[in-house]
Amino acid sequence: MKLYVYDHCPYCVRARMPFGLKGIDFQLEFFLNDDVDGPTALIGTKMVPILAKDDGTYMPESLDIVTFIDQNFGKPLLAPSANRPELTDWLANAALNPLTMPRWVQAPLAEFATDAGAAYFTGKKEELIGPFAEHLANSAELKEELNIKLVTLAAIIESPGAVNGTLSYDDILLFGHLRGITIIGGLEYPSTVRAYLDTMSEQSGVPLYGSMAID
Ligand SMILES: N[C@@H](CCC(=O)N[C@@H](CS)C(=O)NCC(=O)O)C(=O)O
């Protein structure tokens, strides 16, 4: 099987996770961010993640891919979401984009390997969140706000390998979005959040950004 992704894409992290968690062989393929024809040829629109199945068909939608892999390859691992309001609220209010987007595009990620790939991302995302330069200039304040949110998150995480204590769809949602913040240099991680990131990365095989982090 092949999974088509962008490295930075939180939905793609979701789709990558069950392969690592279950030790299933797959090939990771990266589209350039401005490649419209590649994904469109597979699923009729420019969207990732896309799973190329062994039967020759293509599956979009991150959570459909997660369920397909979890249910059809070995014993299912993932418990249903516990629908914890504190976690739902945290994810809904995390507002990570002004910190992450201007940094992802400066990092050596496969989807930004060409100037056109990076320019496409910057143009499209600045329409959504405003000029990257302004967010970068406002980094100290944004990081201070995120540091406070990470303290709130620490109280929600029940164990380093599972936000609810047992691996579940909530880990797919949480690590999917949280992994991206490791591109931000100089954050203060509460030990519970640091341990969760490290453990989930190791178990899912989705690397953190580590030395790529940008202050
Ligand atoms: N509901 C979709 C959302 C996927 C999604 O929004 N992917 C983004 C990348 S993070 C995308 O491909 N957007 C089109 C683009 O970047 O041009 C899923 O869960 O798979």
Task: Provide a descriptive summary of the structure in words.
With 215 residues, the chain is an alpha+beta fold. It folds into 2 domains: 2-72, Glutaredoxin (3-Layer(aba) Sandwich), CATH 3.40.30.10; 85-212, Glutathione S-transferase Yfyf (Class Pi), Chain A, domain 2. It is built from 10 helices and 4 strands, in the order βαβαββαααααααα. The chain has helices at 10-22, 37-43, 62-72, 85-93, 97-104, 115-129, 132-137, 139-154, 169-178, 191-204, and strands spanning 2-5, 27-30, 50-52, 58-60. The protein has a 4-stranded mixed sheet, with helices on both faces. β1 (2-5), α1 and β2 form a beta-alpha-beta unit. α1 (10-22) runs parallel beside α3 (62-72) and α1 (10-22) packs across α9. The longest helix has 16 residues, at 139-154. It is globular. Glutathione (GSH) is lined by residues 6, 9, 11, 46-49, 61-62. Residues 6, 9, 11, 46-49, 61-62 line the site of glutathione (GSH).
If you average the pLDDT, what whole number results? 98
Ligand names: glutathione
Which term fits the overall shape?
globular
> How many runs of DSSP E, i.e. beta strands?
4
- Gap between N and C termini, in Å? 36 Å
Q: What would CATH call the class of the largest domain?
A: Mainly Alpha
Strand content: 5-15%
Biggest sheet, strands in spatial order? Answer: 2-1-3-4
Number of domain units: 2
In N-to-C order, the SSE pattern is EHEHEEHHHHHHHH
